[in-house]
Structures are given as structure tokens and as C-alpha cells.
Amino acid sequence: VASKGLILLATTGNPDPLQKEIGGTVVPSSELESKVGAKTMATLLKLDKGEQLAPKSLIAPTGEWYNMVAPTITKDNFILIDKTGVARRMSVGAVAGDNRPTIVAQVKEDGGTPWYVEFWYWIRQKLTGQ
Questions:
Q1: pTM of whole model > 0.85?
Q2: Residue 118's closest CA among 55, 66, 59?
Q3: Which residues neighbour 87 within 8 Å (Cβ) at sequence distance 6 or greater?
């Protein structure tokens, strides 16, 4: 089952709660893009639908990288780069309601997150740090 921090990262783009749970370093998402390369990013994201990475990535102390897929067409997807450097698109399972991370074999569009919800996440993060 996904931790609260992983769910928040996958649904809000905020890596800070996951960092509090597992440690690590928060870096700009451009570092993750550089690590996997443009060709791999194009296979993980639906660039033609405007998908992109959230602004910040988390590098775990054990070497995994985590970053939210910005919610243009999905609500709970994230990119995971494992310890060996393999990048995968994952669903945290929040939309399904089971909070069980799974590999996304085919992107299922669920409408994404409305802008006002994302704005609320941003305001809440600025005010509370969560």
C-alpha cells in the first residue's frame, strides 16, 4: 500500500511529505529529465496531450527517483526511476481507491485535476508546508 507521502507526491506534485517519510533530496524535475533523456520521457508522457513533470523530483537515499506526472489527463500518476536506472510510469492507486502502486501499461485518461484543486494544493503547501 502506498504511503501518505507517495500519494501526496503522485496527486499534488509535492515531494516534501515523501521526503519526510524516507529522506532524500528534492531537485528540479529537469534533473530527472536529463537522467532519463528526451526519448525515454517521450515514451513515459503523452506530450501531445500537454503532459509534463511536476516542478520538483525526490531522489531517495536508496537511489530511486520520484516525480508526479502533471495532472493534465490523469490524477494520480508518477514517474519512478528505480535503483538500476529503469524509468517507469506508475499509478499510485488513489483514483482506484486501493492506494496500491502499479505500473501503467496504458494511460487511462480520467480528466486530470481541475486547475482550482491544483491552486488549492499550492496555497495549502505555502501556508502549512504540507
A1: no
A2: 55
A3: 36, 40, 44, 79, 80, 81
